[in-house]
Amino acid sequence: MSDEEKSESEGFAKGTGVGIGIALGMALGAAVGIVTENLALWLGIGLAIGIGCGAAYDARGRDRT
Predict the structure, then answer these.
(1) What tens digit of pLDDT does each residue of 11-30 get?
(2) Start and end of every Glycine zipper-like domain (predicted)?
(3) What is the DSSP string of 8-58?
(4) For 50, which of 21, 27, 37, 56 could close a Cys bridge (C-beta 3.0–4.6 Å)?
């Protein structure tokens, strides 16, 4: 196995993209929610965007292998 193949096989475990996406989405949603003084709305939007982006990241990773 070449060095290039080893680096492509290393990465996050399956399903961790959604967790990372949720964490980042909640953080960004909280920041925007505090600025706009509408925390509940932006936490929900951040959660939805984080789940979507995390699932897309996981799906992209499965297609490569």
Answers:
(1) 667 768 888 999 999 999 99
(2) 17-60
(3) HH-SPPTTHHHHHHHHHHHHHHHHHHHHHT-HHHHHHHHHHHHHHHHHHHH
(4) 21
Q: How much is the pLDDT for 12?
A: 62
Contacts of residue 14, Cβ cutoff 8 Å, sequence gap at least 6: 58, 61, 62
Residue with tokens 């193949």: 5
What span, in angstroms and rounded, lies between the C-alpha atoms of 18 and 32? 21
Structure tokens at 42: 């932006």
Sign of CA dihedral 7, 10, 12, 15: positive
